[in-house]
Amino acid sequence: MTAPAPRSLGLPASPCADALRAELLARWAEPHRRYHTTAHLDAVLAAVEPLAGHAADAHAVRLAAWFHDAVYEGRAGWDEERSAQLAWSRLTACGAPDALVREVARLVRVTATHAYEPGDANAAVLCDADLSVLGGARPAYSAYARAVREEYREVPEALFRAGRAQVLRRLLDRPRLYGTATGRELWEARARDNLAGELAALT
């Protein structure tokens, strides 16, 4: 089957699906966002495609990508929970099957920590796609790092540097950044170089 176009929800055509797509695009385009924008949405959706064969339900993964930062206020954990609740209510209203709704909401919640059980193929694909930015070319990674700083522009520089360094160290301490073999092949080595470079600059 041909994969949905990058900005297709993959839901049956209906006024509800059209309205939901418009709502989600509007959310991703909110003016306070700097990194978690429609560009990030497009990048995650695109990154899902080379990984889709690893997923148990690629359709659920793509929908979760649409919703994973649909609510974004820069509040870790809270944003993901509200995004999962949004997915549950909107997909239910559009008549999506209960099992699909539950899986999408679950996957959105996983992105709060990017931690999941071994063998959770859908979560591995979504998290790898979400973290694919870490393995980008150096200019793209630098732009990502700047955009993250802009999203936390109200945080004093010293506090931001300390917090960001902690995040980077936590990532670098992982035995593997990516849960799929394809993700590791595509992004692991460059991601580690990028993270180490940013950490060195911060400290």
Helix proportion: 55-70%
Helix/strand/pairing category: mainly alpha
Kindly report the average pLDDT value. 94
Instruction: Give the CA-based shape.
Output: globular
Number of helices: 9
Characterize the largest beta sheet: strand count, sense, and whether it forms a barrel.
none
Structural features, described:
By secondary structure, the chain is an all-alpha fold. The chain has two domains: 14-117; 131-203, no CATH class. Helix content is 64%, strand content 0%. The protein contains nine helices and no strands. The chain has helices at 15-28, 38-51, 58-67, 78-93, 98-110, 121-130, 138-151, 157-172, 181-202. Helix 2 (38-51) packs antiparallel against helix 3, helix 4 packs antiparallel against helix 5 (98-110) and helix 8 (157-172) runs antiparallel to helix 9. The longest helix has 22 residues, at 181-202. It is globular and about 50 Å long. It starts with 14 loop residues before the first helix and ends with a helix.
Question: What is the topology?
Answer:
Elements: H1 15-28, H2 38-51, H3 58-67, H4 78-93, H5 98-110, H6 121-130, H7 138-151, H8 157-172, H9 181-202
Summarize the structure.
About 65% of the residues lie in helices and about 0% in strands. It has helices spanning about 15-30, 40-50, 60-65, 80-95, 100-110, 120-130, 140-150, 155-170, 180-200.
Summary tags:
2 domains, globular, 9 helices, 203 residues, 64% helix, mainly alpha
